[in-house]
Amino acid sequence: MTPEQRQELMRLLGSGEEISPEWAKILFPPEKREYELVYYGKDRAEDIIADTLAVPLQPVRTFGRNGVDWHNMLIFGDNLQAMKTLLEMKKTGKLCNADGSSGVRLIYIDPPFATKQEFRGSQDQKAYQDKIVGSQFLEFLRKRLILLKELLADDGAIYVHLDWKKGHYIKTLMDEIFGERNFRNEIIVRRIRKNIREREQVKTLNYGHDVIYFYAKSDSHFISPPTKLANREGRWHAFDAPGIRSGMDYPLFGHKPPTGRHWMFSKERAQQMISVKKLKMNPKTSKPQYYIEPSEEDIRDTIWDDITASAFTSGYPTEKSEDLLKLIIEASSKSGDIVLDCFSGSGTTCAVAEKLNCRWIGIDCGKLSIYTIQKRLLNLHKGIGNKGSKLEPKPFTLYNAGLYDFSKLKELSWQDWRFFALQLFQCRDEKHRINGINFDGYRQGASVMIFNHMEIKHKEARITEETLQEIHEAVGSRVGNKVFIVAPALSFDFQQDYIDFDKVRYYALRIPYSIIHELHRREFTALKQPSDEMAVNDTIEAVGFDFIRTPELKYKTGTEKRKGDSGEYGFIKIETFKSEAVVREPFKKKGNLETLSMVMLDFNYDEELKTFDLDEVRYSDALQKEGWKVSFPLGQLGKKMMVFILDIYGNEARVLIDATAFRKRLVKKKRKKK
Ligand SMILES: C[S@@+](CC[C@H](N)C(=O)[O-])C[C@H]1O[C@@H](n2cnc3c(N)ncnc32)[C@H](O)[C@@H]1O
Question: Which pTM does this prediction carry?
Answer without folding.
Answer: 0.77
